[in-house]
Write a structure and sequence with these properties.
The protein is of the alpha+beta class. It is built from six helices and five strands. A hairpin with a 5-residue loop joins β4 and β5. It is elongated, with a radius of gyration of 21 Å. The mean pLDDT is 80.
């Protein structure tokens, strides 16, 4: 799908004054962040990000309509400055016909990319239970390999898989910690949602029901 179709699809959701808009471009997290920046200019606030689609190949972002006066003022200013957005005119913060951010929007897009990546990575940063399950699986693999291989080969194979698990766990945790540090430095506050998941919000924003990913199988609008 082209950049223009992604942008028009988002602006159509916004034009309907929907309380929630969903963004799921085919491509990188950067594209999702660029579109989320556009939604922010129309008075929406970041809700959450998650993976969806075939084999979780799409990064989807859920934005919610921000009721605060400053958000409504931002929306009015954007509509005045970009009356032809979605009809071939300029879209706030993006180069014409592209999802590449303009220089003045690069910082905002980078922050949104960090928010999106932090939330998406929550699915892949293992908790204690996942680690136990993973290492038990390595042990079971080793036992199975003992049936038709030598003990040395079986232990080596099981150990190699366990090492890969360990590296994956550590790399994910380190990357997410660095993102959290950047968001904190940018003035975001760490909060917990009702499920106990760590999230980041700007001062004054709260974690709401809109911030939950939709149930599996829910069709994006």
């Amino acid at each position: 799908m082209s950049a223009a179709r992604h942008t028009v699809g988002l602006l159509q959701q916004i034009a309907r004054q929907q309380d929630i808009v969903d963004i799921a471009p085919q491509g990188s997290t950067s594209k999702a962040a660029a579109l989320a920046q556009v939604a922010e200019q129309y008075g929406y606030a970041y809700g959450t990000a998650y993976r969806t689609g075939f084999r979780n190949s799409l990064v989807a972002v859920r934005m919610y309509r921000d009721p605060r006066p400053e958000a409504r003022a931002r929306e009015a200013a954007t509509i005045t400055a970009h009356p032809q957005a979605g009809n071939g005119g300029r879209v706030p913060g993006l180069e014409q016909g592209s999802l590449k951010p303009l220089p003045e929007a690069v910082g905002a897009v980078a922050v949104l990319k960090d928010l999106i990546t932090f939330d998406v990575m929550a699915l892949y940063v293992a908790d204690r239970g996942q680690k136990v399950t993973g290492y038990l699986g390595c042990a079971v693999l080793t036992v199975i390999l003992l049936i038709d291989r030598s003990p040395v080969e079986a232990v080596a194979s099981g150990g190699a898989v366990a090492l890969l698990f360990t590296v994956a766990f550590q790399v994910g945790a380190i990357r997410r910690r660095r993102i959290a540090e950047r968001l904190t430095a940018a003035g975001f506050l760490a909060v917990c949602d009702e499920q106990g998941n760590r999230r980041f919000r700007r001062p004054g924003e709260q974690v709401t029901d809109h911030d939950r990913p939709p149930a599996p199988g829910t069709r994006l609008r």
